[in-house]
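Ticket #259: bound-state structure for retinal.
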Amino acid sequence: MFTTLLLQAAVRPDFFIPKNDVVGFTFFVSTFALLAAAAFFLLERNSVPEQWRTSLTVAGIICLIAGVNYFYMRGMYLESHESPTQFRYIDWVLTVPMLCAQFYLLLSSAGAKMSSLWVLIIGAVWMIAFGYLGEISGPGQSVVWGCISTLGYLAVVYEVWFGRLGKLVDQSNSQEVVNAFNYLGYFIIVGWSIYPLGYMMQPGNLLSGLNFDLNLVYNFGDVINKVGFGFVVYSMARSAARRRTAAVAAAPPAQLATV
Ligand SMILES: *C/C=C(C)/C=C/C=C(C)/C=C/C1=C(C)CCCC1(C)C
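RESOLUTION: The complex was predicted; output attached.
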């Protein structure tokens, strides 16, 4: 495997990133950031309380899928300098529903319903499917598809902040679950809004005048959101573990069973 990589590097000039290719460089950096994060979350899995492990595994797999996908996107981009649109949307259609599942996993022991998970997944798939149509439809139509896509985005935001999930988290008695849920909720409002900005930089769309490569925006957004989501889960899980240790140390033996 490694020798094949070295051989490829030797015979294929496009394997190297030309100087001044900023976009190519962000494909490269994103690949390694995502793969490193995947390794970290998966290796740390057993260092957090049991209740958080599935969430951490899911975070690791999200980064792994995206990291492998970025490896291919990087290659395609360096060879053709075209946007690897199909690859990107295939990645999103897998990983965004998995990011949505993180909300459900956090609250599943508190009684979250499968139907909430379906609202999130259908909203996310809707958003991505119509966004894809907008990216392949050519200038002139991408604004309309973008608006239709945004309805799916709003459905996800609504379900998390104002729908059943948002109400359920108010009743949770774990400070870490509440914090994790709120941070992830901010990620979908602030972090995810990076993507429509990138989308609007397409020719014929609202921000095309900026003359900015949308890949730069998407590459940045993917690392922030995928690694960020995992990091929120990881740090809240660690804080739950610390609080538990402190409680065990402070409690007289007879109370241990209730900690
Ligand atoms: C890891 C990948 C993530 C979190 C991707 C998220 C993608 C979006 C939030 C995309 C949103 C879009 C709109 C809201 C309208 C225009 C089309 C999209 C698909 C770029």
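RESOLUTION NOTES: The chain has one domain: 22-231.
TICKET STATUS: resolved
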